Amino acid sequence: MVIVAACVLLNEARELLIAKRPPGRPLAGLWEFPGGKVEQGEEPEEALIRELKEELGIEIAKADLEPLTFASHAYPDFHLLMPLYRCSRWRGTLVALEGQELRWVRPEELAGVEMPPADEPLKTALRQWL
Prior knowledge:
There is one protein chain. This protein is α+β, with helices and mostly antiparallel strands and 130 residues long. The chain has 2 helices and 7 strands; from the N terminus they run ββββαβββα. The protein has one domain (2-129): Nucleoside Triphosphate Pyrophosphohydrolase, CATH 3.90.79. The radius of gyration is 14 Å and the shape is globular. The mean pLDDT is 94.
């Protein structure tokens, strides 16, 4: 089982940030919520704070991460468990530090965005919750 923590970053316009997986990576070209793999001995919130700093150059306080939901999906090679958090407060300016394309979208726009299979069920839920 692989645990990946992800975040719905919300801006003042109530849009959420999605990132396009760059070429050469698994599921390249699909859009996803920022985040990354939880390392051994790491809490999901700590992993998310670390990953968002590495990927986007922003700093988030643990207290600003609100648990939202989770996804559980069986890929051919592994099972993914993905806790999803919501955050609308961070320090710094968002920068695509890993060559990924970034895009702000409204929750209802997610229906037209191609995402990894584990993220697909979250599209409907996010439209209801945000």
